[in-house]
Amino acid sequence: MAAMETETAPLTLESLPTDPLLLILSFLDYRDLINCCYVSRRLSQLSSHDPLWRRHCKKYWLISEEEKTQKNQCWKSLFIDTYSDVGRYIDHYAAIKKAWDDLKKYLEPRCPRMVLSLKEGAREEDLDAVEAQIGCKLPDDYRCSYRIHNGQKLVVPGTKWLEIQLLLTCLL
Q1: Helices 140-148 and 124-134 meet at what angle, rounded to 10?
Q2: pLDDT confidence of 11, banded at 50, 70, 90?
Q3: What's the CA gap between 31 and 12, in Å, rounded?
Q4: Closest Cα to residue 143, out of 128, 153, 157?
Q5: pLDDT tens digit sequence for 59-91
Q6: Helix (H) or strand (E) holding 53
Q7: Which of 1, 22, 81, 109 is the most exposed place for a label (fewest CB within 10 A)?
Q8: pLDDT value at position 19?
Q9: Which domains does the chain have, with CATH numbers?
Q10: What is d(CA 153, CA 157) in angstroms, rounded to the nearest whole number?
Q11: Which residues form the F-box domain (predicted)?
């Protein structure tokens, strides 16, 4: 009877081992991981665990290990920085970025100059100005595509006919 009367310490978040908690957190979406930062210090520390953010960076932004190394940032910082830049397109970004990457992969051996001619992405302010000028909202997936690449520079200086001719020779 005396053995049954011994009290056990109450189970708290702080007393739980780290590995099972990290496993549980690995199933959360980025929104839930961010919310965990506000629950307690322990969950804040655990939800900042860098490998948890690797999956989200790859899923939503298609960030590779190589890009991470180049930027010299942790996964969580990469996610937050990318989200602050193009977060409004999170539902479209991965699919559109993959389409651009596939197009570049296809064109690289066939017409490398065309790939080199792609411009950097447009800024939000530029897209807002276009919307103001045309008097209507652009769809988010369209805006997202322009955030990745804002068209291309002239491949061959001169007339449009030369550009079209070069395009046709690259595609044939």
Answers
A1: 130
A2: confident
A3: 24
A4: 128
A5: 999 999 999 999 999 999 999 999 999 999 999
A6: helix 50-61
A7: 1
A8: 95
A9: 13-89 (1.20.1280), 93-171 (no CATH)
A10: 9
A11: 10-56
| Residue 148: closest CA among 92, 100, 106, 102 | 100
Rounded Cα gap, residues 36 and 69, in angstroms: 27
- Structure tokens belonging to residue 60: 């939503």
* 3-state DSSP assignment of residue 118: strand
Which residues, 6 or more positions from 124, have their beta carbon under 8 angstroms from its beta carbon?
147
- Residue 48 sits at φ, ψ, to 5 deg, of -90, 0
Closest CA to 55 of 35, 39, 38, 33: 33
Torsion over CA: 92, 85, 32, 23 (sign): positive
pLDDT at 3 over 80: no
User: What percent of the chain is modeled with pLDDT above 70?
Assistant: 86
Q: Alpha helices of 62-159 — where are they, by DSSP H?
A: 65-71, 75-86, 93-110, 112-116, 124-134, 140-148
